[in-house]
Design brief:
single chain; 308 residues; alpha+beta; Immunoglobulin-like; 6-stranded mixed beta sheet; 4-stranded antiparallel beta sheet; 2 helices
């Protein structure tokens, strides 16, 4: 008693909507041919044939064809609804043996060109959390992210969603500018987005917006600050004058007027003192009328210590 077997694809066949696919069959032994046969999609008949007369049902007519010798079935144009299990039953010739098999088909929509969108148009460094979302059409789309040529993975600051469709960056840095790419794929196609760059702004810490109140405060503060600086400068000048008079008397004999006016007997001419303040002009004597003549002892004591 002779036997025959039908060799069919063992794995799921993946096709693209609008594309072609072939269910390749072969009969063992090769001296047997498919005399009659029927292909079904579930309970629905796709095609039947006897000898050289194939008959296609309306849903498949014009887009499928069968190879009569082996029963091989070819789809010239796939629909998304063609996904599923197909069965075939064949009677061979010349032996009249009954053989059969099954084929699993999965039809995918090809992935489209993906696009990337950011939830923050102008992120600020350190302050913003940026979420990038990749959008693409297609069947069973998978996602991968790239920053430049490096694939992005989870880090303490960077988190990918479970389906990898979104990329979240916490505490955005200026170095996170990209370019980012979203790579999408399924079993029958793949595509990659255009480069997406983030324009990360510097942190605004320390930047002050001048409102009316701020401006008024700044003016008043500047005025008071100027007064304070003037007072401090006056005190420092006096301190310097006192320091020079007290610490350099033996060296400045030539800088002291030998015959000062009686009103100025307690004031020394320091016109040529190094780094000291300029002396008052004699023409401004009336401004100093309030100086006490009773303090002449300072000048006299200094004069007394001067070498003759």
């Amino acid at each position: 008693c002779s036997a025959a077997s039908l060799i069919t694809p063992q794995n799921i066949l993946n096709g693209t909507v609008g594309g072609e696919i072939t269910f390749n069959l072969s009969i063992d032994p090769v001296n047997q041919t498919a005399h009659t046969g029927t292909w079904k999609y579930g309970p629905k008949i796709v095609v039947t044939w006897t000898n050289s007369n194939p008959v296609y049902t309306s849903d498949y007519k014009g887009r499928v064809e069968v190879t009569l010798a082996t029963g091989t079935l070819k789809f010239n144009k796939l629909f998304a609804t063609d996904s599923g299990e197909y069965t075939v039953a064949i009677t061979t010739a010349p032996s009249g043996l009954n053989i059969g098999g099954r084929v699993e088909l999965k039809v995918y929509d090809p992935v489209s060109l993906p696009t990337i969108q950011s939830n923050v148009p102008n992120p600020v460094e350190f302050s913003d959390t940026v979420t990038l979302t990749c959008t693409a059409s297609g069947s069973d789309v998978s996602y991968r992210w790239f920053n430049g040529s490096s694939e992005v993975s989870d880090t303490p600051r960077i988190h990918l969603s479970a389906d990898n469709r979104t990329l979240m960056i916490s505490g955005i840095l200026r170095s996170d500018h990209g370019p980012f790419y979203c790579y999408v794929f399924n079993h029958v196609s793949n595509n990659i987005s255009k480069p997406f760059c983030l324009d990360v702004k510097s942190s605004s810490l320390g930047t002050v917006t001048l409102t009316t109140e701020n401006l008024a405060g700044a003016i008043i503060g500047t005025f008071l600050g100027g007064v304070l600086v003037s007072v401090i400068a006056f005190l420092i000048a006096n301190s310097i004058r006192r320091g020079q008079l007290c610490g350099k008397v033996p060296d400045i004999k030539a800088d002291i007027n030998e015959n000062p006016p009686s009103t100025y007997e307690n004031v020394h001419n320091m016109k040529t003192m190094d780094k000291g303040p300029s002396p008052p002009s004699p023409s401004t004597d009336h401004h100093y009328m309030g100086l006490q003549a009773g303090k002449q002892s300072i000048y006299h004591s200094l004069q007394g210590k001067m070498p003759s």
